[in-house]
Amino acid sequence: MKGIFKKLDSYINKARKIGTSKDYSSINFELLDDNTLKTLYSADGIGKKIIDIKSKDMVREWVEIEEDTDGQILDALNDIDAKSVFLKALQLNKIFGGSIIYMLIDDGGKPEEELNINNIRSIKKIRAFARNKFTIKAFDDLGEPIAFDITKNDESLQVHASRCLIFTGELALDEFGVFTDMEYWGFSEYQGMFNILGKLGISIQSIFDMMIKSNIDILKKDGLWEKLQINNKEGEAEIDKMLDALDKSKSINNTILIDVLDEYTTNSQNFAGIEGLLSKMQEVLSLVSGIAITILWGSSSKGLNSTGDNDVRRYYDLIKNDQEIMMRNPLKYLIELLSFNKELKIKDGKYNFSFKSLWQLSEKEEVEIKKITSETDQIYINNAILDPSEVRKARFGGDKYSSDILVKGDIEIMTEEPEET
Q1: Are 136 and 145 in contact (CB under 8 A)?
Q2: Residues 239, 228: contact at Cβ < 8 Å?
Q3: Residue 245 pLDDT > 90, yes or no?
């Protein structure tokens, strides 16, 4: 516990710039160290929420694999708990600016040897590690890692990069030589929002302090300083006794008894305008973090679209983009390795996958779409554009209802001939 409080105190000092020559009136860049990054996640509720919301949304609906008609690949991903491990890797990547997933693969080779993809007998397990838990041992000619040295419980394990899935953090602009000590990795997501997180934390703490001291009692006592003189024990005791009597009378009778020469007043804090200022800071943090206000704070945006649906859709588009940038290559490589797994006996071939939409329709919306689709289908059938059997197969021939339809070539429309009279 002592270590935790020590870190928390360090974070507060940094957030408020206590004991430094810097303040928030100017832009000062300081690369956040690992202890600060850990504290921002473990001791700052808002900081933790920002990382968790985006990471969990990136894996929430997971993927669908077009060629995986029997679900073998998805089952294999579930067997190695891929969704949970990818979630942890994304969280570590966003916190520390880099992470890897090490895959324990039985291919007849050692961890430090290049993977023999044609001899994969099984993928036993996968595990995520933060950037500060491993080092890069070697690079290729293009500057990509060849080998890592993973440290766990004071033990070291060298692994080949072909047995790892790599996440590289936020862009660090190493092309300009600004952050040469960052080696291969990028920024933590906290780097760009550290100042606003600190300001928001100070603002919230100040509001709490104001609420605690919302009413300040002022007692003007004749001869107060004489009674508080050094070594005036009797005077101090008299003041303590008087304050104790005031507290008791106020709490019991809501009445203050004072001497005729004394004066008692109460000053109240003015909270006008605080809500608006705090709301603006929340909007800034929402902008910097890329998370819609509706999702981050649980409150709807102000304006014409009071539900915040447009903001949520833009946020989901941002998550979709992050999925493509951060997840596609690692997940594509893992699925490829699973297709070579001899124990699974999965058919050879290329597997294309897509990330499922985060925007999920309500039951009412689904019913409305089916109604509109059925009315459109009826028009196509009546005009001999589609055959009822085509519509039935397209809508209900798969595992779930589909509003899509694909027609190949010409078909012979079956019509009922009139009976001869």
Answers
A1: yes
A2: yes
A3: no
How many Cα neighbours within 13 Å face the side chain of 407? Answer: 14
Question: Cα separation of 108 and 143, whole Å?
Answer: 28
pTM of the model: 0.71
Say how far apart CA 159 and CA 165 lie, in whole Å.
12
Summarize pLDDT for 57-68 with one digit per residue, the tens.
Answer: 999 999 999 888
State pLDDT tens for residues 294-347: 888 876 655 444 556 788 888 999 999 999 999 999 999 999 999 888 877 776
CA angle 210, 213, 218 (to 5 degrees): 135
Pull the structure tokens for residue 360. 């999920």
